[in-house]
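User: Some background: our group keeps a shared notebook of sequences we're curious about, and every so often someone picks one and asks for a predicted structure to add to the entry. Today it's my turn. The entry only has the sequence so far, pasted here. Could you supply the structure so I can complete it?
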Amino acid sequence: MERRHAIPVAALAMSAMIAMAGPAIAQDVTVPDAVADPGAVFDTLVDRYRRLDAYEDTVEVVEIITRGEQRRHRVETRLRCRIENDRLHVDSPGGQVRRGVGLGGPVSRSAAVESLVLRYNLWIAPHMVLRFKENPLAEFRLGVPGGFVPASAKETSWRDRPYILLELKAADDALDARYELWVNPDTMLIERITGRQTLPDGADYQTILSITPTRVEARADLVR
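Assistant: Of course. Here's the predicted structure to add to the notebook entry:
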């Protein structure tokens, strides 16, 4: 991934290995100037996610699609994401039920199918793009040629909790696509995503993700 900013990412070190039942606190993190340099904030986030050896969270997803004068279509889904052995697993309610009745064993899939599965999983869990894509700005969301650029970052709060609010917008000003990443400043993990874009067929797409990390194991930053 191309680096646009030199960031003291070594501040994200949490000893040689940290394993916690809940989200790890990113000790001594030096957050870049959240107002002046949103690009540096994004790069720090990417480095944080790249150092996750094992990770689990639960995600509540709300998607709202409106096409023309049609009644808007709203879908709510609860997911469980996990990183294990350098692979992303996203469990939908159907998959959780299948495993509960003993039908969730491993399935052999071709590389092409694996690629399609990853593409779909990153659509419904876009925070994992930071971990699994070489250029996460370019591939943050499908249907946005040219990708995204960090537009702004600021300190804010939601439900009486402090956050860094990082806004991404389409690199092409002619495209209508904006997403906000709500970052916990203690853990430097994304806990909420809100966004909107126009799909290639002209439909209006909105989404809200509420993310609760439940397990974090991270490598120390060895970059000096």
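Suggested note for the entry: Helices lie at 38-50, 93-100, 111-124, 129-132. The chain has one domain: 31-219.
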